[in-house]
Structure formats: structure tokens, C-alpha cells
Amino acid sequence: MSKGIRIRDWRYLGALLLLSASTLYFTFWAAVDILARLGWWPDGWLGFSGASLIQSLTWLDELLFSVHGITKYATLFGLVRKSRWTIWVMVAVLTLSVVQWILLTSNPVYDASVDGFAFIIVDLMALALIYLMRVRRVM
Q1: What are phi and psi of 64, to 5 degrees?
Q2: CB-CB contact of 133 with 9 (8 Å)
Q3: How many helices (H) and strands (E) does the chain have?
Q4: In whole angstroms, how far apart are CA 139 and each of 17, 77, 90, 112, 133?
Q5: Residue 1 — very low, low, confident or very high, per pLDDT cuts 50/70/90?
């Protein structure tokens, strides 16, 4: 463990919990994407058609989704390793989340209103806790 950060530090545990929840949410949508592309997503399951969702996405949506996923997993990895670069990758995650949410609000198939915005808030709270660890020089 670097620079005295303790596992029981409330900032660390809070950031880890929030980022884990956000990463799980992203993983769900990544699974939907993969299953729909393979044709294994049952039409109408969970209230939407996976095939219609995939067909409604642009190349920019796909690019942002992929980069967002890579940076989200990198942030979780950096947080677990208590790396100093975690805050900068988390800023990229938050930026990508906001841009992707704005782009998806115009998508007629995907309702990005409430859940997408809620996880932007979750990412913002995780960023705030990571920032507090950085200010206290425990990360």
C-alpha cells in the first residue's frame, strides 16, 4: 500500500463502492451489446429490443462506448492499486459519460434520461472521493 492509505479509509471505500457499482452498470450494457450483436438477446426482454438498440447506434456512439469502457475498467484497476493517475482517468470517464449521455438522449430506442444521469452522479461522487484522497496525499 502506498503512502499510508488504509483499506478502512472511508474515502477509499466509498470511491471503490461507487466505482464498482458504475462499472457493473457499464458491464451490463456491454453484455447487452454483445448478446444483441450475436443475436442472443430475446426481443422485448427487459422492455426493449437489443437488435433495435444496436441498429440505432452511430459509429460515434460505439466509439465512445468502447473508450468509456476501457477507461472505466482502467480507473477501477488504478483505484484498487491506489495509483496516482487514477484521478486523471476518472476525469476522462466522467467526460465520456456526459458526452455519451448527451448523444444518447436523441436516440429514440434508448431512454438515457434517468439511469444514465444517475450514473453520471455516481461517477462524479467517486471522482470527488478520489480527489479528497489526492488532496490528503493518501493516494
Answers
A1: -60, -40
A2: yes
A3: 5, 0
A4: 17, 14, 14, 33, 6
A5: very low
